[in-house]
Amino acid sequence: MKTLNKTTLITALSTLIIGVLIGWLLFGGSNSTSLTEHQHITNADKETIWTCSMHPQIRQGEPGDCPICGMDLIPLKSDQNEELDPMAVSMSATAMQLAQIQTLTVGKGNVTKSIQLNGKVQADERLLHTQSSHVSGRIEELAVTFTGDVVSKGQTIARLYSPELVTAQEELLEAQKIATTQPALFNAAKEKLKKWKLTEKQIDQVLTSGQAIESFPILADVSGYVTEKMVNLGDYVRQGEPIYQIADLTKVWVLFDIYETDMGLINQGDEVKYTIQSIPGKAFNGTISYIDPVIDPKTRVAKARVERSNADLLLKPEMFASGIVEASSSTKKQSITVPKSAVMWTGTRSVVYVMQKSSQGVSFMMRVVTLGPELGDSYVIESGLEAGEEIAVHGTFSIDAAAQLAGKPSMMNPQGGVAMTGHNHGGTKNSPRENKPSAIKKTSLSPSAKKSIEPLFESYFSFKTALASDDFKKARQSSLALKSALANVDMNLFKGDAHAVWMELSSSLKNSLQHIEHQENIASLRESFIHISNGMIEIAESFEPNRSPIYIQHCPMADSNKGADWLSKEKEIRNPYFGESMLTCGEVTKEIK
Fold it and tell me: Which secondary-structure segment (H or E) carries 450?
């Protein structure tokens, strides 16, 4: 009995152990299989996104070619930064390098700007004198016969015959005879001659000789250089009529032009370092002693005066001068400044992209800023940025394009929106111009909007004609007129889709024109004209502003044989990139009706 129970116990224990082992193998294996399947399903749910290494804004759900450049698409790593800030656009180190993105940490400093000034040497207005005749008469003799002659104070510069003066001297001689009985009459006769600028010595000479002076000498009132001769021998002059203009050139003014955009930075007392075009190799310096309170309505400039001693007569009126002043704001407060390339301008808003770093990578967040004065290649930031923040200064358009396509806040869509996937399901590949919404979408304008951009095209065609004629002066004037015409376009006239398109195209054109006033030769103007023409072509294709046809013309040899386009109102080729050297080089590639 005991043996049986023992055998039964061993059998039961063995059965239990085997059952547990089998159950673990079955159920444990089943759980592992379920976990593997779950992980597979989860990974399958995460669709691989494909992008272009050169155009990171392109994102597709399947491999293929980039619709912009045709390169093979590559898998995009999952963006973990979005978990930290869903409104920022993240970029990998490779994408930043390919897009040539550069950043800068902003800081506060004194607002200074090196301002280039142009001006002329002028005579000191306080030392200009008009030599006039004190009596009426006929010029009998001229001692100074040409402009530029030097005269000294008291020198006889002319002689004239005056019947009135002869009569007055005879009256004096008659009054001399009764001077003892009528002293008042005698003194009155003398005073009359003194008012006609006769000296005591000349009056005594008349009284001593007993004869009137018929050829009356005119004496110089001041010393200086004769800058203008107004009479000739034999002319009859009236009392007070000018004979000569005399200038004392031992002190001169250098008058510099200050444009109204720089008026807030240049102050009385600022030092100016300048050179004179006709005196090469010699540098001058001085301080601004006076600034005109009124701007010339034609030239839109005010004059800044620098006074200089000119005892050696080295400086002569009408000499050209070029100066530089290190100007600073009159408030003397420290401000944040950023390069112009960092700012994207829409006409109503100015934005920058602020870089954010974390352990998971780099992202950029759009930030609206308020611009202050323009400082050459930079802007003062009044608000929107803090010292120590890092912003993108190059490659901002690439960041903005990625933000637009990802449906995040961007320059043209500050609230963000649905992302553009960039899918290209069949069909032909788009050209670079066709990938720009503003280029592929014809946008109609109201008559008032079309009229507002007419001056823009008129200035552009004038610019093109001047370059084709090798006329640097006129080309520069036309380029400044083009920049002014763009600034004067009323963006409120553009409604609906046209408004967004205009904001994008005008911002790009504004960037192409921002340094146009600093171009110093026709070669640099032609280089800028390439980018300006590209912007104007996009505007013309988008809005079709002219009633008459506009022709897009192309020269394959321009831009170092890369080729360049321009707009023309005529089919006839007049090449703006080469001028007379290759005036007819080019062809019409498209007609905008």
Answer: helix 447-452
Least confident of 11-20, 343-352, 394-403, 521-530: 11-20
CATH number at residue 276: 2.40.30.170
How would you class 96 by CB atoms within 10 Å of its CB: exposed for 0-12, middle for 13-18, buried for 19 or more?
buried
Comparing CA positions, the residue from 463, 560, 545 lying closest to residue 505 is: 545
Please enumerate in sequence order all residues whose Cβ is within 8 A of that of 185, keeping only pairs 6 or more positions apart, or say none: 175, 178
**Residue 258: φ, ψ to 5°:** -120, 120
Residue 80 lies in a domain: no
Is 384:430 a contact under the CB 8 Å cutoff?
no
- Residue 8 pLDDT > 60: no
Sequential DSSP letters for 325-355: EEEE-TT--EEEEEEGGG-EE-SS-EEEEEE
In this structure, is residue 178 part of a structural domain?
Answer: yes
| Domain stop point among 219, 240, 261 | 240
Q: Please give the tally of structural domains in the chain.
A: 3
Q: Does the pLDDT value for residue 127 go beyond 80? A: yes
Instruction: Name the residue with tokens 């950029």.
Output: 364
Same domain, 289 and 322: yes
Tell me how far apart the alpha carbons of residues 430 and 515 are, in angstroms, rounded to a whole number. 32
pLDDT at 63 over 80: yes
Q: Reduce the DSSP state of residue 87 to 3 states and report it.
A: coil
What does the alpha-carbon distance between residue 319 and residue 315 come to, in Å, rounded to a whole number?
Answer: 7
d(CA 428, CA 249): 76
585 — phi, psi (to 5°)? Answer: -75, 120
Beta strands per DSSP E along 398-518: none
3-state secondary structure 131-170: EECCCCEEEEEECCCCCCCEECCCCEEEEEECHHHHHHHH
186 and 312 in a single domain? The answer is no
DSSP string, 208-272: HH-S--SEEEEEPSS-EEEEEE---TT-EE-TT-EEEEEE-TTEEEEEEEEEGGGTTT--TT-EE
Question: Are 467 and 554 in a shared domain?
Answer: yes
Q: Domain check: are 499 and 541 in the same one? A: yes
d(CA 267, CA 100): 40
Query: Is 33 domain-assigned?
Result: no
153 with 184, same domain: the answer is yes
Question: Do residue 140 and residue 277 come from a single domain?
Answer: no
Q: How many CB atoms sit inside 10 A of residue 579's CB?
A: 18
Max avg pLDDT among 21-30, 53-62, 483-492? 483-492
pLDDT reading at 429 higher than 50: no
**284 and 278 Cβ atoms separated by less than 8 Å:** no
- Please check whether residue 344 lies inside any domain of the structure: no
Instruction: Give me the domain span that covers residue 148.
Output: 134-240
Last residue of a domain, one of 328, 355, 385: 328
